[in-house]
Amino acid sequence: MTSTDDGVVSISYTDLVAACSDNKSKTNIDNLIERAFSSSGLGIIAITDVPNLPEMRLKLLPLANQLASLPPNQLQKVTVPTSGYQVGWSHGREKLEGDKYDYSKGSFYANPLTEDLAQTMLDRRKETGDSEALKCDESLDKTEEEVLALAKSCPAFFANNVWPTDDIPELESAFKDVAQLVHQVGIMLAKCCDSFVSANVSMFDMISLI
Question: Is the pLDDT reported for residue 104 higher than 70?
Answer without folding.
Answer: yes
